[in-house]
Design brief:
- There is one protein chain.
- The protein is mainly beta.
- It folds into 3 domains: 105 residues, no CATH class; 151 residues, no CATH class; 162 residues, Sandwich (Tick-borne Encephalitis virus Glycoprotein, domain 1).
- The protein contains 3 helices and 31 strands.
- Strand 18 and strand 19 form a beta hairpin.
- The protein is rod-shaped, with a radius of gyration of 38 Å.
Length: 438
């Protein structure tokens, strides 16, 4: 019996050494969770059970459990590296085989899918054709690396202040090259259907108390007829309080524009144009179109106060074509793509999975686990929702192995092995003594 007890002790100490050695070997493995050997004593028992004074029969390895406490988070130079600060696992797919990991080594493959260093695809919520997140539909996350198509300008919102102390210009007629023929001007870029940029310039001429005229040229040409340099114009009237008189604007008769019932100005006949190489150049249509709905111009918040001319706000919704310039992932897992045209859109959202019993997960190597009966079903959600942790982009979670603790455990396991070997040696000496009896 003593041999068996000592042998069980040797086996237990060997298991302890193996577990400790594995922890030490993976002290630098990203996302690794240290294991702990758990032992139980053994007592022999008859059919009717064991007595109260029964002797022990040794030790057995009851379980090798993993400790899922948080590891340190270190910043990296890769924006697609991801670390989980808190509860949860990344969900990855290898041709449909789902596994879970805390190792956030991610990049893109040749098809734009986000993959880890083993080629497993990261999963999350994808987007539809309009870049709207499809919440509830989990699929492989794919980054669209193609150029972003241009969008023609359809809305131009602008707020400005015209100086009420300005005098009516004495230089007539209006000449965009002569600043004395108008009071102030401003320009902004608008875009056609091919992403070509065009300069939309407004010239403001005071025509009387509280009355102004806004002349508009696009690329220095008439918006409707690029062969002309005469502007399209809109009369602007202000109230005694300095606010734009919207009812008067609706009742006005602009040239080249129409005014809607809401007081916004519509430019529906603009012909995008470009010059040829002749001298002087001849302007004609460039083959692109304006927005199908025209350009809707909103000036309703503009004012006329006794202060210098200033454009307080201007925005337009068009843009040229853009190349993918970079990706950003926020702490909720939303993936933003940035383009060279200054635009951005959502490419998807990373999801995390949690389990009722993480100790029940089955380790399968490559710093990954799979679901088991003991772990329960995964609960999938977005980072920072419920009990799930937050994502940190450009960072990785270190192994949670504490080397000093493991080195002490190594010494203890070694001593246990030596002591159990001594037990077998002693039992052997006792047996030899009996054999030598005459």
């Amino acid at each position: 019996m003593g041999f068996n007890i000592g042998l069980s002790g040797l086996r237990a100490a060997t298991s302890d050494l193996n577990v400790t050695g594995n922890n030490i070997a993976n002290a630098g493995t990203v996302g690794f969770k240290q294991s702990r050997a758990e032992f139980a004593d053994v007592y022999s028992a008859s059919v009717l059970g064991s007595g109260s004074n029964s002797q022990g029969s040794g030790v057995l390895l009851a379980d090798v459990s993993q400790l899922f406490n948080q590891g340190n988070i270190n910043n990296t130079q890769n924006g697609l590296d991801l670390a989980i600060n808190g509860n949860g696992f990344f969900q990855t797919s290898n041709n449909g085989e789902v596994s879970y990991t805390r190792a956030g080594y991610f990049g893109t493959d040749r098809d734009g899918f986000m993959v880890n260093n083993f080629g497993y695809k990261l999963q999350g919520y994808s987007v539809d054709a309009n870049n709207n997140l499809q919440n509830g539909v989990i699929s492989d996350l794919q980054i669209q690396t193609a150029s972003q198509a241009p969008l023609p300008t359809s809305n131009l919102d602008q707020t400005f202040n015209l100086n009420s102390t300005n005098l009516v210009p004495t230089t007539v007629p209006f000449n965009p090259a002569d600043p004395t023929s108008y009071n102030s001007s401003t320009s902004t870029n608008i875009y056609d259907s091919q992403g070509n940029s065009h300069v939309f310039t407004q010239y403001f001429l005071k025509t009387g108390p509280n009355n102004w005229q806004m002349n508009v040229l696009i690329d220095g040409r008439n918006p409707d007829d690029p062969t002309l340099t005469t502007p399209s114009s809109v009369p602007l009237q202000f109230t005694t309080a300095g606010q734009l008189d919207v009812p008067a604007l609706i009742a006005s008769a602009p040239t080249g524009f129409t005014v809607g019932a809401d007081g916004t100005i519509d430019l529906t006949t603009w012909v995008p144009a470009a010059p040829d190489t002749s001298i002087p150049p001849v302007w004609s249509g460039n083959g692109a179109n304006a927005s199908a709905t025209g350009v809707n111009i909103d000036l309703r918040q503009s004012t006329q106060f006794a202060s210098t001319f200033a454009v307080n706000r201007v925005s337009q919704d068009g843009y040229t074509t853009g190349q993918l310039a970079g990706l950003e992932i926020d702490d909720t897992g939303v993936i933003f793509a940035r383009y060279t045209n200054g635009q951005s859109n959502i490419q998807g959202q990373v999801v995390l999975a949690s389990f009722a019993n993480v100790q029940g997960l089955t380790p399968v190597g490559k710093t990954a686990w799979v679901q088991s009966f003991q772990s329960g079903e995964p609960v999938v959600g977005t980072p920072r929702s419920g009990t799930l942790g937050a994502l940190q982009s450009g960072a990785l979670e270190d192994s949670n192995v504490e080397l000093s603790d493991q080195l002490v455990n190594l010494i203890v396991a070694q001593r246990n092995y030596q002591a159990n070997a001594k037990t077998i040696e002693t039992e052997s000496a006792v047996t030899q003594t009996i054999i030598n009896l005459r």
